[in-house]
Structure formats: C-alpha cells, structure tokens
C-alpha cells in the first residue's frame, strides 16, 4: 500500500509508474478532488484521501511519498505526530521539498527504528552536509537534488528562457522577473 501526499504534477507522473506493480494507491490533496474529475491519472488512484485526514491512511501505508508543495501550512508537515501515525517500518520518500520534514523527529524515528527508511532528493540545507547523521544513516538513500532533471525538464527550462528573451526583445517586462536590477 502506498500513500501519495499531494496530487500535483509529480504525483501524476508517479501513479502510472506504480500501477503496473499492483500497488494499492491512496492519494491525498488539500484542494477538492472534484478538480480532477476528468483526469485519467486521478482515475487510477484506488483511494482519495481528503486533505487534513491523513492519520488513518498513514497507519495503513507501507510507503509514503511526499509530492506536495511547500507552503506555510505544509512546512514541517512530517514531524513527531506524522511519524507516529505512520505504520512501523514504513518507508518515507520525499521528492518534493526539504522543508516538509522536521529534522529532529525524522532523525529520532530513523534511530529508534520507527521509520523503516528514508529516500530523499531534497534536504533541509543544500548542499547537504556529508557529516549529517541522517545523510550517513544506513536506512537513508539520497540523490543529489536531480530527480527532476530530465530531457523534458531541460526542454521546458529552455522554452521558459526563450519566451522571456522574446518578451524583453519586444520591450515587455519579464513575466518571471525576480528583481529589477
């Protein structure tokens, strides 16, 4: 059984990849599921968990995958309460944002065996400290923040840059301007 926390672009890529393995897929999202009534990927989800009601789904999931956005509300989502609600020895995969996890409770859960393992592509601070106890823990698998690096992602980045250059060339303000200097 798997639980995907957050049903956006990442989850929509993950669900079709899990389906061939016969995994029961539960997914949770903060906004209404009706927003996805015509989404073929949403139809592949076995169980739709309403936002804010994760406790029961966490207790049943063997694998919990974080694909949600980092917001003021989701920052620190995975803390002592979240981890205590998880099935003992369940695996936690974070392919979203490092700020979703509270460091001390995650380390404690790894050390006391509550958490079966952690796989992450994102960190609390980047680059990650190789001497960090979580980084060197035997039940932790880390990739260097490259999970989203694909041919498609590079093409999309190139398209964004090209559109911004065209916009500036036309004398328009960049749509993605960070500062004015």
Automatic annotation (TrEMBL):
Coiled coil: none
Domain (D-isomer specific 2-hydroxyacid dehydrogenase NAD-binding) ranges: 3-147
Matches recorded under InterPro entries: D-isomer_DH_NAD-bd, NAD(P)-bd_dom_sf
Taxonomic superkingdom: Eukaryota
SUPFAM superfamilies linked to this entry: NAD(P)-binding Rossmann-fold domains
One Pfam family linked to the record: 2-Hacid_dh_C
Single GO MF descriptor: NAD binding
Protein name, entry field: D-isomer specific 2-hydroxyacid dehydrogenase NAD-binding domain-containing protein
């Amino acid at each position: 059984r798997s639980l995907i926390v957050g049903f956006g672009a990442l989850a929509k890529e993950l669900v079709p990849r899990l389906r061939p393995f016969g995994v029961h897929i539960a997914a949770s999202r903060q906004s209404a599921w009706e927003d996805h009534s015509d989404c073929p990927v949403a139809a592949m989800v076995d169980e739709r968990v309403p936002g804010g009601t994760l406790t029961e789904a966490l207790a049943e999931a063997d694998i919990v995958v974080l694909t949600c956005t980092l917001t003021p509300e989701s920052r620190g989502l995975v803390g002592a309460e979240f981890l205590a609600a998880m099935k003992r020895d369940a695996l936690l995969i974070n392919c979203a944002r490092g700020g979703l996890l509270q460091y001390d409770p995650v380390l404690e859960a790894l050390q006391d065996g509550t958490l079966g393992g952690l796989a992450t592509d994102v960190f609390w601070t980047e680059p990650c400290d190789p001497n960090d106890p979580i980084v060197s823990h035997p039940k932790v698998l880390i990739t260097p923040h490259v999970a989203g690096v694909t041919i498609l992602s590079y093409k999309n980045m190139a398209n964004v840059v090209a559109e911004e250059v065209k916009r500036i060339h036309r004398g328009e303000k960049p749509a993605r301007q960070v500062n004015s200097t």
